[in-house]
Amino acid sequence: MAKRATASTVQYKHYRKQRWQITSITPAAPVNDSLLGSLRTTSDTNTFMPAIMDSHVPQVYRTVSLVFYTIIFIIGTVVNLTALWVFALTTKRRNSISIYMINVALVDLVFILMLPFRVVYYSQDYWPFGDVFCRINAALTVLYPCLALWLFALISTDRYVAIVQPRHTRELKSINKALLSCAGVWVMTLGSTAPLVLMEEDPDKASNFTTCIKMHDIIYLRRDNPVHFARIVFFFLVPVCIMVGCYMIIVDNLIHGRTSKLKPKVKQKSIRIIITLIVQVLVCFVPFHICFASLLLVREWQGYNTWGTFTTFMMNSSTVLNIILFYIVSKQFQDRVISVILYRNYLRSVRRKSRHTNSIRSLSNLTSAII
Question: Which residues form the G-protein coupled receptors family 1 profile domain (predicted)?
Fold first, then answer.
Protein backbone atom coordinates (compact mmCIF):
# COMPACT_ATOMS: atom_id res chain seq x y z
CA MET A 1 0.00 0.00 0.00
CA ALA A 2 2.85 2.39 0.86
CA LYS A 3 4.58 1.73 -2.46
CA ARG A 4 1.32 2.29 -4.35
CA ALA A 5 0.66 5.56 -2.51
CA THR A 6 4.23 6.71 -3.18
CA ALA A 7 3.90 5.85 -6.87
CA SER A 8 0.62 7.74 -7.11
CA THR A 9 2.14 10.77 -5.41
CA VAL A 10 5.14 10.78 -7.73
CA GLN A 11 2.81 10.36 -10.71
CA TYR A 12 0.68 13.28 -9.56
CA LYS A 13 3.72 15.53 -9.02
CA HIS A 14 4.95 14.62 -12.51
CA TYR A 15 1.51 15.56 -13.89
CA ARG A 16 1.58 18.93 -12.12
CA LYS A 17 5.07 19.65 -13.46
CA GLN A 18 4.11 18.72 -17.02
CA ARG A 19 0.93 20.77 -16.86
CA TRP A 20 2.84 23.82 -15.57
CA GLN A 21 5.36 23.51 -18.40
CA ILE A 22 2.63 23.30 -21.01
CA THR A 23 0.51 26.13 -19.60
CA SER A 24 3.61 28.35 -19.34
CA ILE A 25 4.09 28.02 -23.10
CA THR A 26 0.51 28.16 -24.36
CA PRO A 27 -2.68 29.52 -22.79
CA ALA A 28 -4.58 26.81 -20.99
CA ALA A 29 -8.11 26.00 -22.07
CA PRO A 30 -10.29 25.58 -18.99
CA VAL A 31 -12.07 22.30 -18.30
CA ASN A 32 -15.31 21.53 -16.54
CA ASP A 33 -15.30 18.66 -14.03
CA SER A 34 -19.05 18.50 -13.58
CA LEU A 35 -21.48 17.36 -16.25
CA LEU A 36 -19.33 18.51 -19.15
CA GLY A 37 -16.58 16.38 -20.58
CA SER A 38 -12.88 17.08 -20.50
CA LEU A 39 -12.11 15.03 -23.59
CA ARG A 40 -11.12 16.07 -27.08
CA THR A 41 -11.44 14.25 -30.37
CA THR A 42 -9.11 13.80 -33.30
CA SER A 43 -11.01 13.82 -36.57
CA ASP A 44 -8.71 11.36 -38.30
CA THR A 45 -8.95 8.51 -35.77
CA ASN A 46 -12.33 9.39 -34.22
CA THR A 47 -10.91 8.56 -30.80
CA PHE A 48 -11.13 10.64 -27.66
CA MET A 49 -8.24 11.63 -25.45
CA PRO A 50 -8.26 13.49 -22.15
CA ALA A 51 -7.65 17.19 -22.55
CA ILE A 52 -6.44 17.48 -19.00
CA MET A 53 -2.82 17.87 -20.18
CA ASP A 54 -3.52 21.28 -21.64
CA SER A 55 -6.33 22.45 -19.41
CA HIS A 56 -7.19 23.18 -15.85
CA VAL A 57 -10.21 23.49 -13.63
CA PRO A 58 -11.13 27.15 -13.07
CA GLN A 59 -10.37 28.13 -9.49
CA VAL A 60 -13.77 29.80 -9.08
CA TYR A 61 -15.54 26.59 -10.08
CA ARG A 62 -13.47 24.51 -7.68
CA THR A 63 -14.19 26.88 -4.79
CA VAL A 64 -17.91 27.06 -5.54
CA SER A 65 -18.06 23.26 -5.88
CA LEU A 66 -16.41 22.75 -2.51
CA VAL A 67 -18.81 25.10 -0.75
CA PHE A 68 -21.89 23.91 -2.64
CA TYR A 69 -21.35 20.16 -2.21
CA THR A 70 -20.44 20.57 1.45
CA ILE A 71 -23.67 22.46 2.14
CA ILE A 72 -25.73 19.97 0.13
CA PHE A 73 -24.14 17.05 1.99
CA ILE A 74 -24.81 18.47 5.46
CA ILE A 75 -28.36 19.72 4.87
CA GLY A 76 -29.36 16.83 2.62
CA THR A 77 -28.16 14.19 5.08
CA VAL A 78 -30.11 15.76 7.96
CA VAL A 79 -33.27 16.25 5.89
CA ASN A 80 -33.38 12.78 4.35
CA LEU A 81 -32.41 10.92 7.54
CA THR A 82 -35.25 12.77 9.28
CA ALA A 83 -37.61 11.82 6.45
CA LEU A 84 -36.59 8.15 6.66
CA TRP A 85 -37.05 8.19 10.41
CA VAL A 86 -40.52 9.76 10.13
CA PHE A 87 -41.89 7.72 7.21
CA ALA A 88 -40.23 4.37 7.98
CA LEU A 89 -40.14 4.24 11.79
CA THR A 90 -42.62 6.64 13.38
CA THR A 91 -45.52 6.48 10.90
CA LYS A 92 -48.10 4.11 12.38
CA ARG A 93 -50.46 3.85 9.40
CA ARG A 94 -48.48 3.55 6.20
CA ASN A 95 -50.01 4.17 2.80
CA SER A 96 -48.81 4.35 -0.78
CA ILE A 97 -47.57 7.93 -0.50
CA SER A 98 -45.43 7.11 2.56
CA ILE A 99 -43.83 4.24 0.60
CA TYR A 100 -42.94 6.64 -2.20
CA MET A 101 -41.51 9.16 0.29
CA ILE A 102 -39.29 6.46 1.83
CA ASN A 103 -37.89 5.67 -1.61
CA VAL A 104 -37.35 9.35 -2.44
CA ALA A 105 -35.42 9.86 0.81
CA LEU A 106 -33.44 6.66 0.22
CA VAL A 107 -32.30 7.57 -3.30
CA ASP A 108 -31.40 11.05 -2.06
CA LEU A 109 -29.22 9.57 0.69
CA VAL A 110 -27.48 7.15 -1.68
CA PHE A 111 -26.58 10.04 -3.96
CA ILE A 112 -25.60 12.40 -1.13
CA LEU A 113 -23.21 9.90 0.45
CA MET A 114 -21.01 10.12 -2.66
CA LEU A 115 -20.61 13.90 -2.38
CA PRO A 116 -17.71 13.80 0.14
CA PHE A 117 -15.62 11.99 -2.46
CA ARG A 118 -16.25 14.84 -4.91
CA VAL A 119 -15.32 17.38 -2.24
CA VAL A 120 -11.97 15.65 -1.70
CA TYR A 121 -11.38 15.48 -5.46
CA TYR A 122 -12.08 19.17 -6.03
CA SER A 123 -10.05 20.24 -3.00
CA GLN A 124 -6.96 18.19 -3.93
CA ASP A 125 -7.30 18.09 -7.72
CA TYR A 126 -6.48 14.42 -7.26
CA TRP A 127 -8.61 11.23 -7.08
CA PRO A 128 -7.23 8.84 -4.42
CA PHE A 129 -10.20 6.44 -4.21
CA GLY A 130 -9.51 4.19 -7.17
CA ASP A 131 -11.27 3.31 -10.39
CA VAL A 132 -14.28 1.48 -8.89
CA PHE A 133 -15.45 4.40 -6.76
CA CYS A 134 -14.95 6.74 -9.69
CA ARG A 135 -17.20 4.61 -11.89
CA ILE A 136 -19.84 4.36 -9.16
CA ASN A 137 -19.74 8.13 -8.68
CA ALA A 138 -20.36 8.73 -12.39
CA ALA A 139 -23.08 6.06 -12.55
CA LEU A 140 -24.93 7.65 -9.62
CA THR A 141 -24.86 10.99 -11.44
CA VAL A 142 -26.87 9.32 -14.20
CA LEU A 143 -28.97 7.08 -11.91
CA TYR A 144 -30.23 9.74 -9.51
CA PRO A 145 -32.29 11.90 -11.91
CA CYS A 146 -33.67 8.80 -13.65
CA LEU A 147 -34.84 7.24 -10.40
CA ALA A 148 -36.08 10.51 -8.89
CA LEU A 149 -38.19 11.38 -11.94
CA TRP A 150 -39.86 7.97 -12.03
CA LEU A 151 -40.65 8.21 -8.31
CA PHE A 152 -42.17 11.63 -8.96
CA ALA A 153 -44.24 10.04 -11.74
CA LEU A 154 -45.52 7.42 -9.27
CA ILE A 155 -46.44 10.16 -6.79
CA SER A 156 -48.28 11.97 -9.60
CA THR A 157 -50.31 8.88 -10.46
CA ASP A 158 -51.08 8.47 -6.76
CA ARG A 159 -52.54 12.00 -6.67
CA TYR A 160 -54.43 11.27 -9.91
CA VAL A 161 -56.09 8.25 -8.32
CA ALA A 162 -56.88 10.18 -5.13
CA ILE A 163 -58.63 13.03 -6.99
CA VAL A 164 -59.96 11.60 -10.27
CA GLN A 165 -60.66 7.99 -9.23
CA PRO A 166 -61.60 8.19 -5.54
CA ARG A 167 -63.85 5.11 -5.81
CA HIS A 168 -60.89 2.91 -6.71
CA THR A 169 -58.50 4.41 -4.18
CA ARG A 170 -58.24 1.30 -2.00
CA GLU A 171 -57.58 -0.95 -4.99
CA LEU A 172 -55.08 1.24 -6.83
CA LYS A 173 -53.30 2.76 -3.81
CA SER A 174 -52.54 -0.41 -1.86
CA ILE A 175 -49.19 -0.68 -0.10
CA ASN A 176 -48.29 -3.87 -1.97
CA LYS A 177 -48.79 -2.19 -5.34
CA ALA A 178 -46.74 0.80 -4.22
CA LEU A 179 -43.91 -1.50 -3.08
CA LEU A 180 -44.06 -3.42 -6.36
CA SER A 181 -43.98 -0.19 -8.39
CA CYS A 182 -40.96 1.13 -6.46
CA ALA A 183 -39.14 -2.19 -6.81
CA GLY A 184 -39.78 -2.13 -10.56
CA VAL A 185 -38.40 1.41 -10.85
CA TRP A 186 -35.27 0.49 -8.87
CA VAL A 187 -34.61 -2.63 -10.96
CA MET A 188 -35.23 -0.73 -14.21
CA THR A 189 -32.88 2.15 -13.40
CA LEU A 190 -30.15 0.01 -11.83
CA GLY A 191 -30.24 -2.31 -14.83
CA SER A 192 -29.81 0.60 -17.24
CA THR A 193 -27.01 2.18 -15.18
CA ALA A 194 -24.95 -0.94 -14.38
CA PRO A 195 -23.29 -1.01 -17.85
CA LEU A 196 -21.80 2.42 -17.10
CA VAL A 197 -19.88 0.91 -14.19
CA LEU A 198 -18.78 -2.10 -16.22
CA MET A 199 -18.01 -0.37 -19.53
CA GLU A 200 -14.91 -1.77 -21.22
CA GLU A 201 -13.88 1.35 -23.13
CA ASP A 202 -12.36 3.84 -20.72
CA PRO A 203 -10.69 6.95 -22.20
CA ASP A 204 -9.58 7.99 -18.72
CA LYS A 205 -7.00 5.18 -18.83
CA ALA A 206 -5.18 7.10 -21.56
CA SER A 207 -4.20 9.62 -18.92
CA ASN A 208 -1.15 9.01 -16.72
CA PHE A 209 -2.69 11.00 -13.87
CA THR A 210 -4.94 10.00 -11.03
CA THR A 211 -8.11 11.64 -12.32
CA CYS A 212 -11.80 10.85 -12.29
CA ILE A 213 -13.54 11.92 -15.48
CA LYS A 214 -15.83 8.92 -15.95
CA MET A 215 -18.85 11.18 -16.37
CA HIS A 216 -17.07 12.80 -19.27
CA ASP A 217 -16.14 9.40 -20.68
CA ILE A 218 -19.81 8.40 -20.60
CA ILE A 219 -20.81 11.50 -22.55
CA TYR A 220 -18.06 11.27 -25.14
CA LEU A 221 -18.31 7.59 -26.06
CA ARG A 222 -20.03 8.44 -29.32
CA ARG A 223 -20.83 4.88 -30.27
CA ASP A 224 -23.14 4.78 -27.21
CA ASN A 225 -25.07 7.90 -28.21
CA PRO A 226 -28.21 5.91 -29.20
CA VAL A 227 -28.18 4.36 -25.72
CA HIS A 228 -27.84 7.79 -24.11
CA PHE A 229 -30.70 9.25 -26.15
CA ALA A 230 -32.86 6.20 -25.36
CA ARG A 231 -32.12 6.80 -21.68
CA ILE A 232 -33.17 10.45 -22.01
CA VAL A 233 -36.43 9.43 -23.68
CA PHE A 234 -37.34 6.63 -21.28
CA PHE A 235 -36.03 8.09 -18.02
CA PHE A 236 -36.82 11.76 -18.63
CA LEU A 237 -39.45 12.36 -21.29
CA VAL A 238 -41.70 9.42 -20.37
CA PRO A 239 -41.99 10.17 -16.61
CA VAL A 240 -42.37 13.90 -17.32
CA CYS A 241 -45.16 13.16 -19.82
CA ILE A 242 -46.87 10.94 -17.23
CA MET A 243 -46.68 13.76 -14.70
CA VAL A 244 -47.99 16.37 -17.15
CA GLY A 245 -50.83 14.07 -18.24
CA CYS A 246 -51.90 13.40 -14.66
CA TYR A 247 -51.79 17.09 -13.77
CA MET A 248 -53.80 18.15 -16.83
CA ILE A 249 -56.55 15.66 -15.97
CA ILE A 250 -56.50 16.70 -12.30
CA VAL A 251 -56.74 20.41 -13.16
CA ASP A 252 -59.58 19.71 -15.62
CA ASN A 253 -61.52 17.84 -12.93
CA LEU A 254 -60.93 20.60 -10.40
CA ILE A 255 -62.07 23.33 -12.82
CA HIS A 256 -65.26 21.52 -13.86
CA GLY A 257 -66.20 20.60 -10.29
CA ARG A 258 -65.95 16.82 -10.65
CA THR A 259 -64.24 16.49 -7.29
CA SER A 260 -67.07 17.72 -5.05
CA LYS A 261 -67.04 14.51 -3.01
CA LEU A 262 -63.43 15.02 -1.94
CA LYS A 263 -62.53 16.69 1.33
CA PRO A 264 -61.07 20.19 0.97
CA LYS A 265 -57.91 19.10 2.81
CA VAL A 266 -57.30 16.32 0.27
CA LYS A 267 -57.68 18.79 -2.60
CA GLN A 268 -55.34 21.34 -1.03
CA LYS A 269 -52.73 18.71 -0.22
CA SER A 270 -52.84 17.30 -3.76
CA ILE A 271 -52.55 20.76 -5.34
CA ARG A 272 -49.54 21.59 -3.15
CA ILE A 273 -47.83 18.32 -4.06
CA ILE A 274 -48.49 18.95 -7.76
CA ILE A 275 -47.08 22.49 -7.65
CA THR A 276 -44.02 21.32 -5.69
CA LEU A 277 -43.23 18.52 -8.14
CA ILE A 278 -43.72 20.75 -11.19
CA VAL A 279 -41.41 23.46 -9.85
CA GLN A 280 -38.79 20.93 -8.77
CA VAL A 281 -38.75 19.19 -12.14
CA LEU A 282 -38.59 22.47 -14.07
CA VAL A 283 -35.82 23.91 -11.90
CA CYS A 284 -33.66 20.86 -11.15
CA PHE A 285 -34.11 18.28 -13.91
CA VAL A 286 -35.23 19.92 -17.15
CA PRO A 287 -32.11 22.15 -17.55
CA PHE A 288 -29.83 19.22 -16.65
CA HIS A 289 -31.29 16.93 -19.31
CA ILE A 290 -31.34 19.66 -21.95
CA CYS A 291 -27.65 20.30 -21.32
CA PHE A 292 -26.91 16.56 -21.31
CA ALA A 293 -28.66 16.11 -24.67
CA SER A 294 -26.85 19.10 -26.19
CA LEU A 295 -23.50 17.63 -25.14
CA LEU A 296 -24.29 14.41 -26.94
CA LEU A 297 -24.76 16.41 -30.15
CA VAL A 298 -21.47 18.33 -29.86
CA ARG A 299 -18.77 16.70 -31.98
CA GLU A 300 -15.76 18.45 -30.58
CA TRP A 301 -14.63 19.50 -27.12
CA GLN A 302 -15.89 23.04 -26.50
CA GLY A 303 -14.05 23.79 -23.24
CA TYR A 304 -15.44 24.84 -19.90
CA ASN A 305 -19.18 25.55 -19.95
CA THR A 306 -20.82 27.53 -17.16
CA TRP A 307 -24.29 26.31 -18.15
CA GLY A 308 -23.24 22.69 -17.66
CA THR A 309 -21.86 23.48 -14.23
CA PHE A 310 -24.99 25.39 -13.20
CA THR A 311 -27.40 22.66 -14.34
CA THR A 312 -25.38 20.04 -12.47
CA PHE A 313 -25.59 22.12 -9.31
CA MET A 314 -29.34 22.50 -9.73
CA MET A 315 -29.80 18.77 -10.21
CA ASN A 316 -27.87 18.12 -6.99
CA SER A 317 -29.96 20.67 -5.09
CA SER A 318 -33.04 18.49 -5.60
CA THR A 319 -31.83 16.29 -2.73
CA VAL A 320 -32.36 19.27 -0.40
CA LEU A 321 -35.49 20.73 -2.01
CA ASN A 322 -37.34 17.48 -1.30
CA ILE A 323 -37.83 18.82 2.23
CA ILE A 324 -40.74 20.86 0.80
CA LEU A 325 -42.34 17.66 -0.51
CA PHE A 326 -41.81 15.84 2.79
CA TYR A 327 -43.25 18.79 4.71
CA ILE A 328 -46.41 18.91 2.58
CA VAL A 329 -47.05 15.17 2.60
CA SER A 330 -46.52 14.29 6.26
CA LYS A 331 -48.05 15.96 9.31
CA GLN A 332 -45.49 14.08 11.42
CA PHE A 333 -42.63 15.54 9.40
CA GLN A 334 -44.13 18.99 9.92
CA ASP A 335 -44.29 18.34 13.66
CA ARG A 336 -40.64 17.22 13.71
CA VAL A 337 -39.47 20.32 11.84
CA ILE A 338 -41.58 22.63 13.99
CA SER A 339 -40.39 20.92 17.19
CA VAL A 340 -36.77 21.42 16.14
CA ILE A 341 -37.39 25.10 15.42
CA LEU A 342 -39.27 25.57 18.70
CA TYR A 343 -36.56 23.71 20.61
CA ARG A 344 -33.91 26.00 19.16
CA ASN A 345 -36.00 29.04 20.08
CA TYR A 346 -36.44 27.59 23.57
CA LEU A 347 -32.69 27.17 23.95
CA ARG A 348 -32.13 30.75 22.81
CA SER A 349 -34.65 32.06 25.33
CA VAL A 350 -33.04 30.01 28.12
CA ARG A 351 -29.62 31.40 27.21
CA ARG A 352 -30.96 34.97 27.18
CA LYS A 353 -32.59 34.47 30.58
CA SER A 354 -29.41 32.95 32.01
CA ARG A 355 -27.35 35.87 30.69
CA HIS A 356 -29.83 38.35 32.14
CA THR A 357 -29.79 36.55 35.50
CA ASN A 358 -26.01 36.43 35.55
CA SER A 359 -25.78 40.14 34.76
CA ILE A 360 -28.19 40.95 37.61
CA ARG A 361 -26.22 38.75 40.00
CA SER A 362 -22.92 40.35 39.03
CA LEU A 363 -24.46 43.81 39.47
CA SER A 364 -25.82 42.93 42.92
CA ASN A 365 -22.46 41.46 43.95
CA LEU A 366 -20.73 44.63 42.81
CA THR A 367 -23.21 46.79 44.74
CA SER A 368 -22.78 44.75 47.93
CA ALA A 369 -19.00 44.94 47.61
CA ILE A 370 -19.14 48.72 47.30
CA ILE A 371 -21.41 49.02 50.31
Answer: 79-326
